[in-house]
Amino acid sequence: MSEKREKKFTVSSFLDSKEKGEKITMLTAYDYTTAKLLDEAGVDSILVGDSLGMVMLGYDSTLKVTLEDVLHHTKAVVRGCNRAMVIADMPYLTYHISVEETVKNAGRLIQEGGAHAVKLEGGEEILPMVKGLIRAQIPVLGHLGLTPQSVNMMGGYKVQGKSEESAKKILRDAKLLEEAGVFGIVLECVPDRLAEHISKSLKIPTIGIGAGAGCDGQVLVIQDMLGMYSNLSPKFVKRYKNIGEEIKAGVKEYIKEVKAGSFPEEQHTFKISDDILEKLY
Ligand SMILES: Nc1nc(=O)c2c([nH]1)NC[C@@H]1CN(c3ccc(C(=O)N[C@@H](CCC(=O)O)C(=O)O)cc3)CN21
Ligand SMILES: CC(C)C(=O)C(=O)O
Ligand SMILES: [Mg+2]
Q1: What is the ipTM of this complex?
Q2: What residues sit in the active site (predicted)?
Q3: Domain region containing 268
Q4: Quick one: 235 and 254 in the same domain?
């Protein structure tokens, strides 16, 4: 019951946290069970990232992820959350065509999915969409630096903002997004001192992933930090646990016991009375 009364983390908590100098914690989750664990552990916000295409669906990029995919996983995550704020990633091509389509698509993530906010990759190019969403009362989280939906344009998952030109563009985009009214910006794979400078130049918080300790918060993909997904091993991932090995060890033990006939034991079985059994013979 006491958990029910805990103050929810909202859009205004993002700004309050930055003002108080309290770091914001964010992790991805794609299902009810995981979301409930993260919420109970006290994470501030949960991102239903389009990285679900890679870790949940086995694609080799995020480009194949659809609005229906994110909607499906968002519904599950929202059911598992009590305090955490749920942010849904807008998939590739759901906010690139027109403001009208963008608002309709984001509106479904909010109205049908129950997300509290959406995240879009990009700066100046997508400003009209960002402004359209905010006009429609949909809170927006920005995402700059390494934007995985641009993998084909970037020529791979590479650190962004190392040159003067690209560092200036990221800073300018961050300021444009802030002016447009986003409540925060994810900075992915940018040099730490650039991310720190951007964070100090903004009133809204930055959430870093591979962007150093100068950001106002941090985000990681849950399967990466728990050691469950090994197709990628970006430098920014810290493995807090090795759940992948734990799962394999548990499954191997189960296989061994079933093969040996040592599972199930008495305590795992149900009984029938002798007289009823007699009637079957
Ligand atoms: N499981 C998972 N975790 C993620 O963090 C993630 C996804 N999936 N899918 C979408 C994108 C892809 N991401 C990636 C993938 C690889 C690198 C990577 O290997 N980067 C190099 C940088 C090389 C350089 O430019 O110096 C690295 O060494 O970390 C970074 C981000 C982040 N996102
Ligand atoms: C890594 C985060 C920022 C993301 O966009 C995702 O998980 O899709
Ligand atoms: Mg994403």
Answers
A1: 0.98
A2: 188
A3: 246-280
A4: no
CA of 62 to the centre of ligand 3 (A): 7
Average pLDDT over residues 189-213: 98
Ligand 1 contacts CB of residue 54 (under 6 A): yes
What the block records as the tokens of 21 is 């100098």
234 in the Ramachandran plot: left (φ > 0), alpha (ψ -120 to 50) or beta?
beta
SS3 state of residue 87: strand
The closest alpha carbon to 26, from 208, 218, 156, 155, belongs to 218
pLDDT confidence of residue 2: 47
What gap in Å lies between CA 201 and CA 141, rounded to an integer?
17
Whole-number pLDDT of residue 4: 56
Residues near ligand 2 with C-beta < 6 Å? 28, 47, 49-51, 89, 186, 188, 209, 219, 221
Q: Hey, which of 149, 219, 232 would you mutate to test ligand 2's pocket, going by the most ligand atoms within 8 Å of its Cβ?
A: 219
Task: Indicate the annotated binding residues for 3-methyl-2-oxobutanoate.
Answer: 50-51, 89, 119
Q: Check whether 6 has a pLDDT greater than 90.
A: no
pTM of the model: 0.97
Same domain, 269 and 205: no
**Number of domains making up the chain:** 2
| CATH number where 218 lies | 3.20.20.60
Element spanning 254, H or E: helix 243-260
Q: Which two tokens stand for residue 126?
A: 């997508």
Both 199 and 262 in one domain: the answer is: no
Residue 124 known to be catalytic: no
Instruction: Tell me the pLDDT tens digit for each residue of 23-82.
Output: 999 999 999 999 999 999 999 999 999 999 999 999 999 999 999 999 999 999 999 999
Ligand 3 mean position to 175 CA, how many Å? 21
Grade residue 1 by pLDDT with cuts at 50, 70 and 90.
very low
